[in-house]
Design a protein that fits this description.
Length: about 70
């Protein structure tokens, strides 16, 4: 999750629930689903729900704490 692209998406999600379009505009990324998948593989829990056909909303559930953060 250290790449600037992943950090931009994470920052957008930390603001609250975001649609695919919101994330595209705020984080300047095109492949939102793939980027969210990368964040999930890095231990960040992100929920997704379909608002209507073709419109999805992503919500940051929680971020796993690193060893340094848990001390």
């Amino acid at each position: 999750e250290t790449s600037p692209r992943l950090q931009r998406v994470l920052k957008a999600l930390m603001e609250g629930p975001q649609t695919t379009r919101d994330i595209q505009e705020k984080a300047n990324v095109c492949a939102v689903g793939s980027t969210v998948g990368e964040l999930r593989r890095n231990g960040i829990e992100i929920a997704c729900r379909c608002l209507k056909k073709g419109t999805y909303e992503y919500t940051l559930e929680r971020k796993k704490m690193s060893n340094a953060e848990s001390k």
